[in-house]
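Need DMT family transporter's 3D structure for a figure. Predict it.
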Amino acid sequence: MPHSRPLTHRQAVLTMIVVTLMWSIAGVVSRHLDAARTFEVTFWRSAVNAVALAGLLVAWRGAGPLWRQIRDGGWLLWASSACWCVMFTAFMVALTLTTVANLLIIMSLAPLFTALIARLALGHRLPWRTWGAIAVAAGGIAWMYGPQMAGGDERHLWGSLIGLTVPLAGATMWTLLQHSSQAGAAAPRDMTPAVLLGSLGSAVLTLPGAWPFQATVHDLALLGLLGVVQLAVPCVLAVAAGKVLKAPEAALLGLLEIVFGVAWTWLGTDESPTPAVLGGGGLVLLALAGNEALALWGGRGGREPSAEGGTLPA
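Structure prediction for DMT family transporter:
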């Protein structure tokens, strides 16, 4: 595997900004599809991502080392792959049912879900700032989805519920990694092979529902763009930046995906966030940003489980 010079801190920050910009295009691109729907959208995006990521990893590491990492990854690699499969599949399905802003704000809850699951499963103590962030975020979510629960659009409600599995799967994956590390197992810190396997799993899982294919050439071009530019390339870049940045730094920068994603959709489509989404989503972002900023200023960023789930793409 070829070695490259590590990024400087400034380069890592700029890289993460570029990564979030690339992650954020999924919503606006998906709104310009002609004929592809739900499972076919998910299938093509996951399949193209798997092919592109496999090519990048083979070019970067060589086929032999990549195969050995997959072969020797053990249960943790496959459990993480299952989590990625859920994230890839649920994200695109939810995106066809609800608004981009709804889904991105739901996904941003991954750090708080990670903290709660680690508290329940591993006994991690949560600082008061995290409990406060959870309370404020819960209020924001109630503000956002109260109208839906009170008789709003049932389609949006289902999209929100399906989207909720994305941060839950991400939080589960990080908790498994932490449990394995505590137990002294050989847990791979670089989880890009799990991303590759998760993409393959998502493509296989959605193929029956995607058949017969209806995507136009235009659709295939856009979905190929998502598979390569929105997933495969930023995934590799995020791995490089993540080796330099503290977890709260990466989580704070990861919140830019929401800002960019909502802005792209607002400018590139006729989809506008409702006042409830803007108000409740603002509370959620405030809670997350405050929690991670306090962690960074407190100098405990690299060891807190709550931060890691915030930089996962889907």
